[in-house]
Design a protein that fits this description.
Strand order of the largest sheet: 3-2-1-4-5-6
Radius of gyration: 21 Å
CATH architecture of the largest domain: 2-Layer Sandwich
Order of helices and strands: HHHHHHEHHEHHEEEEHH
Number of helices: 12
Structural class: alpha/beta
CATH topology of the largest domain: Endonuclease, Chain A
């Protein structure tokens, strides 16, 4: 997390969880709180999940409902104000779906980003040329939209690799991702060489599961695990993306499952130094 402190999406989730704890402590249901505040149960649920803007007036109403006064009220109001500040990614928001904006806001504040990518090079590791070739596959794309999305991808990479406190990036790739000629042979060769260079950074670990490993647990679909530090570790989350949206998994049991799954994958994959040699040899053979 940067020296500026957590971003608005982290603050929103933090505030939502505090409000849920206060409601439960007051022994009130979602329906009870919604009736008092003049909101719907769905709205209260989305507020507690950090999935929508949390207005200060609603924070005041809910605190009144839970019999919360100062100084806790002042703290929560300040969190609400901070959670509604504009994030760095809003300059690209025209081309971003809401569900992905939420992910990016959390990703840029995470202390550790763990990713499994079986079919293509992960976005945080892509070269501009590879990214452009991949982005051109989208619907209703234009030269300008591809350029903007590629710039946005580069901005995400810069945020994760921030100078003051870079996130720890752990990526497991399937060999298939290294073999698929996105953009053609030259683009793929340069991309693989870029991976070799990235793997030399102290905050980045790249491992490849070779074809020789055969079938392995978890290989069916990609996933992203965001981990937080500095008192925000209870905000850890798993992000599963599909063609039309995304699913967030935040229950402790889900987090534990995916942590263990990722670690099992790293055990199956080539070690980091072996991966670097493997990628270097592959690039030379193209």
């Amino acid at each position: 997390m940067s020296e500026e402190g957590p971003g608005p999406n982290v603050r929103r989730r933090q505030l939502g969880r505090e409000l849920r704890k206060l409601r439960e402590k007051a022994d009130m249901t979602l329906k009870d709180a919604a009736k008092f505040a003049g909101l719907t149960s769905t709205t209260i649920s989305r507020i507690e999940g950090g999935k929508q803007t949390i207005l200060t007036r609603n924070v005041r109403l809910l605190c009144q409902c839970y019999d919360i006064g100062e100084p806790m009220l002042d703290t929560l109001i300040r969190l609400a104000e901070q959670s509604n500040e504009r994030g760095w990614w809003t300059g690209f928001s025209v081309s971003l779906p809401d569900w992905f904006e939420s992910f990016v806001g959390l990703e840029s504040d995470a202390a550790e980003v763990w990713r499994y990518s079986p079919n293509f090079i992960d976005g945080l590791l892509q070269t501009p040329e590879y990214a452009a070739a991949f982005l051109e596959l989208g619907e209703k794309v234009t030269e300008q939209s591809v350029k903007q999305q590629a710039e946005f991808r580069r901005a995400r990479q810069d945020r994760v690799n921030r100078e003051d406190d870079p996130a720890k990036l752990r990526v497991v790739l399937d060999e298939a991702a290294l073999r698929r000629k996105v953009g053609g042979t030259d683009v793929l060769r340069d991309q693989i060489r870029h991976l070799v260079e990235l793997a030399e950074r102290p905050n980045i670990t790249i491992q490849v599961v070779p074809f020789d490993a055969g079938a392995y647990v978890g290989m069916q679909s990609p996933f992203h695990l965001l981990r937080f530090a500095g008192g925000f570790d209870d905000l850890d989350a798993v992000y599963l993306e599909n063609q039309r949206g995304a699913v967030w998994m935040e229950r402790p049991t889900d987090i534990t499952y995916y942590i263990r799954l990722f670690e099992r994958m790293t055990d199956i994959a080539l070690a980091a130094d072996e991966t670097a040699d493997f990628m270097d040899h592959l690039a030379s053979s193209l």
